Amino acid sequence: MNHPTSKLVVDDLRLGHWSSRTEAFSLACDGLSFEIAENEFVAVVGPSGCGKTTFLTALAGLVPVTSGRLELNGTQISGPAPDRSLVFQQASLFPWATVTANIEFGLKAQQRLDAKGRARVAELVELVGLAGKERVYPRELSGGMSQRVNLARALATDPDLLLLDEPFSALDAQTREVMQEELTRIWQADVAGQGKTAVFVTHDVPEAVFLADRVAVFSSGPAHLVEVVDIDLPRPRDAAVKRSPGFQELNDYILGLVMSQTQPGRRAASDRGSNTPVVG
Ligand SMILES: Nc1ncnc2c1ncn2[C@@H]1O[C@H](COP(=O)(O)OP(=O)(O)OP(=O)(O)O)[C@@H](O)[C@H]1O
After folding, report:
1. Locate the ABC transporter domain: which residues (predicted)?
2. pTM for the complete prediction?
3. Which of 15, 20, 54, 57 to mutate to test the pocket of ligand 1 (most atoms within 8 A of CB)?
4. CATH top-level class for 37-65+79-83+160-280?
5. What is the pLDDT of residue 125?
6. Of 18, 28, 203, 236, which one has the greatest count of Cβ atoms within 10 A?
7. Phi, psi of 180 (to 5 degrees)
C-alpha cells in the first residue's frame, strides 16, 4: 500500500529507448521502486549513463513507461502536462525574448498571463535576483543569470513537480556554488511547504547532499535503486554546512555507494555494517 502522503510512486518501473539505427530496444531503468512525499526535494545520483536522465524525462512524460507504475498524485504519467516543469543543463531561453517574456512564456502558452500571472512573474524576477534585468535579452546574460531565468520560467507555471537535470553543470565552479545556495533559498522561500516536489539529477554528490532532503542512489545501468539516503542536515542551509562533519560523512557515504557501482569490487560503506549514516 502507498504511504498516504506519497506524491510520486515509482514501482517496478522499466524504461528504455528504441534505436531506429540498430532496430533494438535497450533498457535504461529496470525495476526502479521508491516513493517521494509532498514537499520533498530528492536528488538522484548514480554512475554515468545509468539512466538518470531517462528517469527524469519519463517523469516529464517525454519517455514512455515500458512497464511498472510511475504515478503523480495517483495518476499514471502518460505524457507531458502543465503540472510538471523541466529545467535542463543548458538554459533553453528564447533569444528573441526579454527576461520577462521568457519567464512569461509558459503562462502565456497556458493562457494564464493575466494580472495575477504578471504579478507572479514580477515576484519571480525579484526572487531569482534579476531585478533591473527585465528588459534584457538572453545574449546579454551570463550563464548563471540564464539559469536564473530558466528556473523562474519553470516556477512561473506553479508546477506540482519541478524536474531539474544537472541545471548547474555547465557553470563555472564559483557560479555553481552560488546557484546551489540560490536554489535552496528559492525552494525555502517560494516552494517548500506548498505540497510541491522537486527531483534533481546530478553527477555531483556534494551538490546532491547540499540541496536534498533525500538522495536516491541509482545502480549502474540499467538502473535500479541502490539506496535512498536521508539528508538530516538542518535547514536553512548555506555554504557553511559543507564544512560540517555531518555533511562530510553523508558525502563520503553516498560517494561510496556510487563508487561501488562503478567499481564492483569496491565495498560500499553499508558493507561495513551501517545502513544509516550518522549525521553530526
Ligand atoms: N534517445 C536515446 N536513444 C537511445 N538510447 C538512449 C537515448 N537516451 C539515452 N539512451 C541510453 O540510455 C542509457 C541511459 O542514458 P541516460 O542519459 O538516461 O543516463 P544518465 O545516467 O543520465 O547519464 P549521464 O550521467 O552520463 O548524464 C544510456 O545507455 C544511453 O546511451
Report:
1. 13-245
2. 0.91
3. 54
4. alpha beta
5. 93
6. 28
7. -60, -45
